[in-house]
Design brief:
The chain is α/β, with parallel strands linked by helices and 229 residues long. It contains 5 helices and 14 strands. A hairpin with a 2-residue loop joins strand 7 and strand 8. The longest helix has 11 residues. It is globular. Bound molecules: nickel (II) ion (NI) and manganese (II) ion.
Length: 229
């Protein structure tokens, strides 16, 4: 069994059957909703960052140094992390996949903007992406990152068991577009993310669940709570 723990915003820890620990989009110390501080994180094997904005990448470099975790992201974001002293990085690009010890990971398109938090001179680009991970035994996980509603979601239809979708609006899809994304992707289970971190992205996840209806099971987590699958 795999366990997914939500830390608020788009930050999740995934613990696989084999005991690999993977963190998506670490945003801990400056995240008002996080249940976790960076100093609380002891063991971590991989850090996956969907793009360079501070609320997805801000803790990645110090966390990688603290834990020895490998940073996986787009090529340029990994180059920036390496320039900051992160010893293990694995650069990828949109549409590319790789077999990691925890499963097969592919970067998916996301429609968003990109700067790199901490890159004072603006030398590095950040092309936003999502993550599709096949953990085996019908457990294909999709972390959408920050994205608008895109027709590319149709390409994921039938390929996703558990989808993590932003519903906060303003910076990403809101609940109406996220419900349309569910119709397009047709996952079995959806966990909403990227909401309630600040007033500007306050949302009622129960209303999102009602809007999705029978199209998928919507699991609403509190920060610190987990979903086993
Ligand atoms: Ni962003
Ligand atoms: Mn964001």
């Amino acid at each position: 069994m795999a366990r997914l723990i939500w830390h608020g915003h788009s930050t999740f820890t995934l613990e696989t059957d084999a005991g690999h620990r993977i963190m998506f989009d670490p945003f801990l110390d400056d995240n008002p909703k996080s249940d976790l501080k960076r100093s609380d994180v002891a063991q971590l094997d991989y850090i996956l960052c969907s793009h360079g904005h501070f609320d997805h990448f801000g803790d990645a470099v110090p966390l990688a140094k603290q834990t020895g975790a490998t940073v996986i992201a787009t090529f340029e974001l990994c180059a920036f992390a390496a320039s900051q002293g992160v010893s293990d990085t694995h650069g990828m690009n949109i549409g590319g996949g790789h077999e990691f010890p925890f499963g097969y990971l592919k970067l998916t398109p996301a429609l968003h903007s990109g700067t790199v938090a901490g890159d004072e001179q603006g030398r590095y680009t950040s092309t936003p992406c999502g993550f599709w991970v096949d953990l085996g035994r019908d457990r294909r996980l999709y972390h959408a990152g920050d994205t608008a509603l895109i027709s590319d979601f149709a390409l994921l239809r039938g390929q996703v068991d558990l989808a993590l979708l932003p519903i906060g609006d303003n910076y990403t899809m809101g609940p109406v577009d996220a419900a349309r994304a569910v119709e397009m992707i047709q996952p079995r289970v959806v966990i909403p993310m990227h909401y309630d971190t600040w007033d500007l992205i306050a949302q009622d996840p129960a209303a999102f669940r009602e809007r999705v209806g029978a199209a998928a099971q919507v699991v609403i987590l509190e920060p610190g709570a987990s979903h086993d699958f």
